[in-house]
Amino acid sequence: MTDKEQGKKRKSKSATIAGYPISIFFIVVNEFCERFSYYGMRAVLVLYFKYFLLWDDDFATTIYHTFVALCYLTPILGAIIADSWLGKFKTIIYLSIVYTIGQVVMAVSAIHDITDTDRDGTPDNMSLHIALSMLGLLLIALGTGGIKPCVAAFGGDQFEDHQEKQRSTFFSIFYLSINAGSLLSTLITPILRGRITDHFPVCVFAVVFIVGSGMYNKTAPQGNIMVKVCKCIGFAISNRFRHRSSQYPKRHHWMDWAEEKYDKLLIAQVKMVLKVLFLYIPLPMFWALFDQQGSRWTLQATTMNGNFNRLYKNDSSSSHQTVNPILILVLVPIVDSLVYPLIAKCKLNFTPLKRMTVGMLLAGLAFVAAALVQLQIDQTLPTFPSSTVGQAKFINMINGNINITAGSNPITLDASDDYLTFDEPFNLNLGPGAENVVSLPDGTRSTIIIIQDAATYRSFSSLFCAELFILRILNGFNSTLNVTVGDEGFGDIVTNNMSEYIEVAQGTPKFVIRNDLGDECVYTQTLGFGSSYTLVIPSTFAFGPNCADSIRPVMDISPNSIHMAWQIPQYLLMTSGEVVFSVTGLEFSYSQAPSNMKSVLQAGWLLTVAVGNIIVLIVAEAATLEDQWAEYLLFTSLLVFVCIVFSVMAFFYKYIDPTKIEAQFAHMEPYEKEKKKSLDMTKKNLYGNDRRGSNSSNKGTQQTKM
């Protein structure tokens, strides 16, 4: 088929609306749905690890950042598959299927009923849930990372040469769809958490993309430039190693050792790429701080007051992540339209590399703000026992005060709600002739209930938690009671016994108390975010109009008092740093990259994100800091150090115009080809003369022998 026929065929397929190919609308919707699915899942991922899989904060952070790192390592694989084998369209389709399967597996892993054989609300085979979760995350990382370098480039392929303005607008709309998907998902996903509709968009984006199949301009794979660049660099290194002896003359640049096999234009382009990649070396530290918004900062939010008048329990710790996409949508136009022009009018040379340096400093300030917030939070959190100390709390169910002795500590019991710490088991003296030894297991809390008379007590373990709305019931009544709150139930609680803790919706839930005779009592209790209570039903309790008056709430853990709004300054600083650093970095990389190697620098940029998350893994596992605020300051110190190194590297960097350099080599190319051709002809002639001389010599020898 001729070029003219191909052009006609393409023109007939590329129907337009307002100058834009119809196909790009399918691509934009596809990206919106994909980002909705990805960020929605990621918004609650660390909470899923903590509350469903019951992992501690450090391990949840480690797995979270391992997943994010994989998501930014797999784009290199996706780019190679698309450019060298399947093409962008098929790569997106096939990896979208992998992505969808991963989301489905992840959804199934969160269904506790699949292993909850005794129907007590707790999975009986947690190993299966963990295995399914890891498999799902691996498939999602392969899917989302594999299509990441393909979708935007595939959208750009839909435009013709005369649609350069529309193409530029498309990339702005494309970036907007990413943030719109992120914003809506972090708002909606916590509400839909635990429902199958949470994973609906991932199925939608695959279907939407396939629907537009007949309208796409699909370019055939033409070989991956990253592979070619790697081969060129590898040959230069190996050739230099073979000629390491001092008898060989030195060359201007080590990449010049590839001239024996590769043309000078490619070598010059590789030099430009390596020059930028060298500047990328300090950049992962920025992403190490930035991506902790989804891990450490989310965990920090769980210990704060998240009362934003939400309708669903325990969702504000993830919904606070909406601050970032909202600020991006606000700050990008402000920075581009006001801040940068104002700086230019002040005649300040605010180069791209200087902007990136400022962005890194803003990220460091964000972590200083996070450390200050953490210091305030630590002052309000309850003191939990260490691994070598136990704690005991006393609840008096007798009418009137009683005096007891715990070890050498005299205690007057009324409605005590303070935990008392003991370094070792102690003798509990409840009165004359009633001395008992109370054993406190190390690192645990015990609640000691004084019931009926001063010589009788029961001991119950207490739960460590300052992040949920949890409550339990102590039945001191003379018969078995059944207590429910909403759809949750405490079950039957026998006399002088304690129920397990259960999660309760924030606000003022109603507790319905029933006995075997069908009598009913309704009690309400206001719960603050992160609070924990024991509701004591005393022996004097009686059903009737005023039955709730005798029920006594004992606060185990006070509500979180630091409001989550205090995280807004750190998010504002971090997002400002992202706008200045990330957007500028992409623009700088694009302007300094050769025309055919922009994908190489894009892969290098994504690789810095992956390495940044690996840094978090190393610090989270290696650091022995007990205080979270100290870890925040550690990351700040590391970033400031890296920022100084980067500023020195940026000072010596010389900006180039890749187009002019490529034009110079393009002008020299005919001369270089002619020179190479002449050299090849000379070698051929010399080789031919040698061969003929050799033949004549052989012939004379044969005649002599004859």
TrEMBL record:
One of its GO terms (cellular component) is membrane. Keywords: Membrane, Peptide transport, Protein transport, Symport, Transmembrane, Transmembrane helix, Transport. The chain crosses the membrane at residues 12-30, 67-86, 92-114, 126-147, 167-188, 200-217, 272-290, 326-344, 356-377, 568-588, 600-620, 632-653. Residues 685-706 are annotated as: Disordered. It comes from the Eukaryota. It is a multi-pass membrane protein. GO terms for molecular function: symporter activity. GO terms for biological process: oligopeptide transport; protein transport. SUPFAM superfamilies: MFS general substrate transporter (SSF103473). It is found in: Membrane. Belongs to the major facilitator superfamily. Proton-dependent oligopeptide transporter (POT/PTR) (TC 2.A.17) family. This is Solute carrier family 15 member 1. It comes from Amphiprion ocellaris (Clown anemonefish). The lineage of its organism: Eukaryota, Metazoa, Chordata, Craniata, Vertebrata.
